[in-house]
Each structure stands twice: as C-alpha cells, then as structure tokens.
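I'll show a record.
***
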Amino acid sequence: MTPTLASDKASLRRAIRAARKAVPPARRRQAEQAISRHARCFFRPGRRIGAYIATGSELALDALIGRALGHGCRVALPALPQRGRKMLFSVLDSRGRWYLNRYRIPEFDGGNWRARDLDVLFLPLLGVDEQGFRLGQGGGFYDSTLAYLNAFRRWRRPLLVGVALDCQRVPVVPREPWDMQLDYLLSESGLTRFRRLAR
C-alpha cells in the first residue's frame, strides 16, 4: 500500500467513524429494525446465513438474526483463527457456548462452516462507495477470508451484503487490487444492488 493510499484510507475512516458515532441511539435502533425488514428477501428455510456481532458503533444485527432464524435459516458468526486471517463461521445452535476472543468480541463455539458454505454473508463496514466497494476497519480478515472469490468470474457464493447507515456511503473509497465488490448494501433506506464489474 502506498503512503498516499494509506493516508487517504486513514482520513476517510476517521471521518466516517465520527459520522457514525454521531447518530443518536434512537435513530440507530430504528435503522437496525428497518434493516432487518429490508433483509427478508434473503431469508428462505434452510439457507445458510453469515452475520456478525457488532463492535464499537457498528450496526447491531440482533433483529436481523432473529428474523433469519424465524424464517428457518441457519445462522453462523465469524470465528477468528489462532493464526492468519482466514475466518471460519460458527453455527448458532443449542449445543455451543459463547466466549470472548482476543479482541474481546463475543464468539460462538459451534460447528464451523467456511465462507464458501454460506449462501448470504452480511458484512460490517466503515464505508461503501457508489460501485459497492467496501472500506473495512483495516484488519484484513474479510479480505483474506473472501480472497478465493477473485478466482471466479461468474460463480459467487456467498452473496456479499454490506450493512451500514446511509451516512457511511461515500462517492469513492480508495481501492487495492484485492478489494472485494459487494453484491448489495442494506441501509435504513432499503436495499441497493450493485452492478458487477469485470475484474
């Protein structure tokens, strides 16, 4: 990463974090409920759904997860690896247990799926641009986990659905060759589909 690109990303992250933190709690709760309603088109009995546990000022997916389970979906949450950055997804069931990972984020200890086993993956993000490119926190976990998708032109599994407030949308995010384009964005305004760009 060039120094200019790194500084561009850092300044954009600071600006979006500030905008997201400024959203009042009541408006945030309304957005989370609206997002869970907009997401119902992805829910079918037996579908494998990847979600996440919110940290910091990220939008919580509690309502979305509850709706997915109510529609007969199976839901899995990210599990950080001991080494490297490729995550697995731990399936919510009655036999597992909750614990805190090394970043003090709750994780679930259940059966594991790989990303390619999921039908739909709801991803957290800091920013997203008009073509569906995502700016993350900078840890590289999702980039590493989903890097296999770069080898395929047409086959896409899972569908990648970013979750954000409208204030997190920007015209353009600084891009790297490995950055992944989202298929959809879920915000309080509704569902946005992105046109797939040729790689």
Notes: The chain has four helices and twelve strands.
